[in-house]
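During the reporting period the student researcher (J.K.) took over the structure-prediction task from the postdoctoral fellow and processed the backlog of single-chain submissions. One of the processed entries is reproduced below for the supervisory committee.
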Amino acid sequence: MEVGSLHHIELGVADGTSVVDSFKKKYGFQCFAQRCRSYCTQWVLKSGKATIVVTEPNLKCHLENTSTSRYEVNITDSDPLFHCWWILDGNKLFDENSVFNVAFKVTDLQQVVNNVVKGGGEVITSPQCVQDEHGKVDVAVVRSCIGNVFHTLLSYDDYSGDFLPGFTSIKNNLDESNKCYGLVSHIDHIAFVCNQGSTPHIVEWYKKCFSMKRFFINSNEDEDEGFLISDTGIGMRMKAMEYWKCSETGLTSGSSQDSIRFVLVESLESQGANQVDIFLEDHGGPGVQHVGLYTSDIMTAVSTFKQNGVQFVEPPPAYYTDDLKVSEMGKVGFHVEDLKHNGVLLDTEADADQDAENQCEANRYLLQKFTKPIFSKRTFFLEFIQRVGAQGFGAGNITALWRAVQAYLTEDTISSS
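J.K. obtained the following structure tokens:
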């Protein structure tokens, strides 16, 4: 197998200390490693298997002026564990607070790099070895075909350090008294906003470069068109891709901890300004819109996160009075008021087997909740998701989620104008 697993995501920020403190206090992440260089400081956050690297550059060191009086870091060749996410691209500069790196652990680094080259991808850093007293790690960096996104590729078997070479462990930093500690177990999926008409190319690129395959969001989804939502004020196309650790056996479903899942979102033509276009404008182009964080108890998670100051996007009240949705909630054992109290959305699997002897198999469902954008711009946010057998992305909730986010962004635009 070539691509093994999702290793971490990397968030480039202007104020690393503030972001790290927020993830610790609000979401229960542990900061367990750090790396300091003259040109950057990096922190490693972890909750369960979910690993987030927060990178803050020092713009006074190793910089070159660009035509926009901003800066472009140009030291990737000497340090493959740090590279720039706001490189000038098409006369647009990407938002400096951005998830710009989705790192994979791979089993055959050179083969993956070869596939990227054959697939038309750009290798930013050719395979090289980085090491410290804990061992060696082979690293390469490639540029995704999506906006400002990179992929760091890591290959190692017996590295004994807590994270990667050069990172120093932070001891005695675990606050188990924090009520939200451990509520996030892993990264469920990563969603990208893309330019109109670009998803066929992106799907093909990831198929050639990383052997990823289409994952159908809905059983009625057209392979070419994707999952379409076209309603009053709504126009969106979604496509999803996945890579399973044991995909060569033909497995098509399983635990989301064992897969790499990407969701691609683009707006439809002639639908007017919407949240996809707002992201593209504020972010400076395509990129990571949100990360889905898995929790095994979304009710407790949302309630606790709210107490910690997390701001969520609330669904429209009509969602909890819709007869079909109320019936759907009751069939899987939920009271409407319990879900409404925390503003949690529920969606049953569209193709669940109603004749299944096992009740869990007959009633596969998922629960979802979105935060508001976590930075000042209307770009990156978090999703919390709990799955009970369901493997999709809440196709039945997408319209409700769209309207909720659209209403928030519209209100935000009006209030700031």
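The committee noted the following: Confidence is low (pLDDT under 50) at residues 62-74, 246-255, 352-361, 413-417.
J.K. will present the remaining backlog at the next meeting.
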